[in-house]
Structure formats: structure tokens, C-alpha cells
Predict the 3D structure of the following.
Amino acid sequence: MQLCNPQVVRSLLEKYSLAPKKAFGQNFLINPMVPERIADASASFADADKPAGVIEIGPGVGALTQYLCQTYDKVVAIEIDRGLIPLLGEALEEYDNVTVVEADFMKIDLPAFVNEHFGDILAAGGTVGVCANLPYYITTPVIMKLLESYPMTEKLPFSSIVVMIQLEVARRLAAKEGTDDYGSITAAIALRAKAEKLFDVSAGNFHPVPKVASAVVGIIPHGGIREVYPDAPADNDECLKFADNVGELISLAFGQRRKTLVNSISSKYPKDKTTEVLKSCGLRVDIRGEKLSAQDFCKIADKLN
């Protein structure tokens, strides 16, 4: 079924008495080259010689799902809109490797979900990816749930997280410290993974046409906070406390972006102490948070606590 054909999409929606819902940020892809490229990008991070599965968040009418089915051994699509469930059953009926789960992704127990649906693949040494065309309003919560549902001392079970999101947000996720786009979300993601903007997607590729452009980002998990900062505590419990301190430091640093780090975190850390720590780290005492890498935040938090 041509799930990127506007006429087919409209016909399917009309058949099931549906229309794109603003509340769920639904904008359906109508250019088949885009979802095919996203699926290929997602699969490129999997091990081709081992079984591979993928979680899709928000399949919509299945435009991306069909290409994931052609690429992966197993696809589990999570859809919050109950009305789309029967439509997806028809749209994806030719594929026997897909399961559509009606659920709110933000409410599921992610580790339990992964174990239930992909435990066999992981046990066989295979990989599990995450792929999605994310609604703009929920981009950050979804990404942080994926990254924070597992302890910072562990490597995430995902080979990759490939998502299409608002272009402006994509630039922030993949920004380098010291640039205008760099922010708390950038530094927070860097503690768990490396983010890279893969390619842009113009608004004309969607129905209805959104008001902003999009981009596809690849987020590749690494070994956790100890990979970023090898001096993190060896004890797991202590390391988790350390990770919490780093996360809090990042939040404070960007809570008042225009202030120097010394001033922005002064509600918790005395200015004189922060000044001494910055000097000991070889950093300027008037440095701002946007100039600090994830490793810098780890080093500062280690010395402040």
C-alpha cells in the first residue's frame, strides 16, 4: 500500500472517520523517499549479521513503519491514538514482522517493554533501535525518557535512536559547546550518547503541512557517564549520586544562561568555592555554562561535591 500517497492517506483516514489530530502533533509523511531514508539511517547502526529489532514511536498511518518492516527483523510500533489502530492493521497487513501496541509511550515501563518484546533478540546478541517521526511538542520528553530509563552506569540497550524532529531542536541536540544552539539538553544528552544531525526535511513532505522545517537526528548511545568521565566513582551507587549532581549542575548552569557559572549555580554552591574549582580545572572564572562540555560539567561537579 502506498502510504505516502496523499490520496491513499486521505482515503484511509476517511474510511476510518479520522483526521490529523493537532493534540497529538500528527503530520503524515507524503514523500516516500523521506521515510525510506530514515529507515536506512536507523538500520545503518545495527549489526547486519545479527537479529535486529526496532521500536517505532507514533507510527501514524504507517508511512515509516512499512520501510522499517522491510529493513528490520522485528518492528514494534507504539501508537497513542486508538483510532489509528484498526487503520494500521489494514495498512500494514502485508507485513508479518510488526506488532502495533496501543499505549502512551511516556507512561510505559521502558525496560520492561524492551525485555518483553525484544528480550530474545538481545539474548541472541542482536540489536534494538528506536526510530520515530516525533511530534514537536513532545520531542524532548521522549528523548530524555529513552536516555534516563536506564541507570547512568549502564550502556543503553539501543543501538541507535534515529528521530525526525523540528529543525531548530535538531540543531540544539547536535550543537557543540560554545555555539548559540548549545544548551542544557545538549549537555544532558552528551552524558549518555553522541547526537548528530543527519539530514534536513522540508515542510512540504508532510500532510498537513507544518509551519516549520524538520531534520533527522541520530543519537548513538555510548558506555555511560564513566565513558565521558573515567574518574567517576567505581561504586555504582556512588556513581549514580555523582550523575545526579552533574545533571543538577547542568540544569543550574543553563537556568540563568546569561550569567556566569559562578553566579548561575550560587544558589547551591558558594561563589568562592566555585571560583577555586574553576581555577583548578584550568577554566576561566567568568565562564558561562554554554562554554562547558559534558566532561567539563563532570569534572566541576566532582570537585564541588
